Amino acid sequence: MTTHIDIFIRHEGDLDPAHHQVHDGITVETLKINLADGREVIGLFLFEEDADEPLPDHHQIRHHGKPHFLHHSRCRHVHVVVRYAGRPVERAFGPGSTLTRIKDWAERQFEIDAVDAAELSLQLHGTTDRPDEATHVGSLAKCPDCRVVFDLLPSTRVNGSI
Amino acid sequence: MTPDRAQLERDLAAPLFTEGAARGRWRLITVAWPHAIFGITAKDKREFVLRLECSGYPAEPPTGGLWDLANGSILAPALWPRGDAVFSGTFRWDWHGGAAMYFPLDRLSRMGHTDWASTHPHMAWKPERGIVQYLSEIHRYLNSRGYHGVA
After folding, report:
1. B121 vs A128: CB contact, 8 Å cut-off?
2. Is beta strand A147-154 parallel, antiparallel or unpaired with respect to A120-124?
């Protein structure tokens, strides 16, 4: 009996994940071809979530009892800038990096107390959008720019007159 | 089936919702229209039950609060999660008797709070993002530094 694997794939420049069921042992190369749906696959990468390096074409995706979370992109890396209190920090991340990973990294860079500080959120610079923590940074970027700028902002109490 | 219920059921079957469930962030417990009941996982792995009334979905956001499944009632105040000022500003059992979360994504709470559109624009309801918008924000509170568990 063939074992099927649940894969959730997030794509470059797209906030909505897609769900796929594939057979145990499918190679990355085959999965890329399936995702391309007849289009060219050269220059497309698949990443495990939170990994900085793409999966090699010969890699087999194996059943391990849990779903896989992948990212599909033309960006090899996404250049991320996080600004806080007038200071920027920046580095390249794999496009499948979650905003949870990026926020944790930025808080360490800014030496923000992990216990006592107010909760902070990543907001896309120049907008009022604060994407969900599970968002892949590559879903906010488009090739060939492959760059995202965030502001790190404190969460504020919801107040009202009633 | 009414259009609001049909759209809710489509959204509950969509990857945006099922991916969050696969991550263990939330789960659907049941739909008893017009209510949908979810379990939301906090950072200490405790699950809080959220009962949302979804009439008019998705043009209008849901409204609801923490629920006691065993008793079929709003969760007793002693069992509500505690937290810092930001957290407790939204998890208010004293607001409508605990029937609505006090934030801009809740249909009942946003009535009369026209200022919230400018003070909290990142929490403006977007019908195209649907129920996950409400669930992910509650999940964010329950997994924030401001969440202190249950007293």
Report:
1. yes
2. antiparallel
Residues 43-72 of B with CB under 8 A from A: none
Quote the ipTM score. 0.93
- Show the domains of chain A with their CATH numbers: 4-73 (3.10.20.90), 78-154 (3.10.20.90)
CA B91 to chain centre: 10
How many residue contacts between A and B have a Cβ separation below 8 Å? 72
Q: Which of B10, B16, B110, B141 to mutate to test the interface with A (most CBs of A within 10 A)?
A: B16
Q: Which of A137, A129, A104 is nearest to A13 (CA)?
A: A137
Nearest to residue B43, comparing CAs of B131, B130, B149, B124? Answer: B149
* Interface residue A132 vs chain B (CB under 8 A): yes
The amino acid occupying position B124 is: A
- The CA distance from B137 to B18, in Å, is 16
pTM of the model: 0.95
Considering A35-39, A154-158, B82-86, the range whose residues carry the highest mean pLDDT is B82-86
CB of A128 within 8 Å of a chain B CB? The answer is yes
Average pLDDT of span B68-79: 96
Nearest partner of A96 among A123, A135, A122, judged by Cα: A135
Cβ <8 Å between B122 and A130: yes
